Amino acid sequence: MSAISGLIRVIERAARKAGQRLRRDFGEIEHLQVSKKGPADFVSKADRHSERTLWDELRAARPDWGFLMEEGGEIPGEEGKPRFIIDPLDGTSNFLHGLPHFAISIAVQEPRIDGKGWGEVTAALVYQPITDESYWAETGRGAWLQDRRLRVSARRHLDESLIATGIPFAGAGDPGQWTKIYGSLAPQVAGIRRFGAASLDLAWVAAGRYEGFWEAGLKPWDTAAGCLLVREAGGFVTDWRGRSLPVCDETVLAGNDALHSRLHKLLVSSLKD
Q1: Quick one: which of 209, 239, 248, 258 has the most CB atoms within 10 Å?
Q2: 217-267 pLDDT, tens digit each
Q3: CB 67 within 8 A of CB 75
């Protein structure tokens, strides 16, 4: 096993502390106070408590770093320092409906050398509180599930492959575009799944549970950690134009090393029609 760095230990400790509260809140789901941010976009007390715990823990450990958080927005750090990208509860709708499939996602992004924006993601963790699974990665050190090294699936044929996706809902996303892609991919693959937490979808691609994943209209906190996990597990992540960006979120396509290019060709072809 690769020795866990001090940074990953800090991130995992914060995630586990926030995860303890999420598990308690999940057990009391009917008592949660829920407010509505927008169409089908809910935020609960659990979101805010989780984010506050992560902020407190990570800020104490790295007081000069910045933050980009789903609820709290962007909080600049000192010039030249990295930032944490945080989703305190990915899969909020699952959580609020009592479905035990949600995660905490934390990534570390470095500033660009030229000082113009943000560059590579160098550390990542996706923590699933209900199963107590901790997926983590660092640049050049591989991807791991606890102490087990992860590799993307070895399957080489689309008709043996399971693909994950996110489906447009309640005014969010483009149903017509999604339908075209689904119509192109579905006849070629063994199955398509929609579980409702993009960070876990990407972690499961890294773990070889899925062969691929596509979605549009996400945010950096949904995918920043998952992108690094897939890449460090030997897979590929691009946007739909085929660009390997540090964080692919507006459009994202992930796949194992054998099938990513074939999935990309199918996706692009479907949108030309």
Answers
A1: 248
A2: 999 999 999 999 999 999 999 999 999 999 999 999 999 999 999 999 999
A3: yes
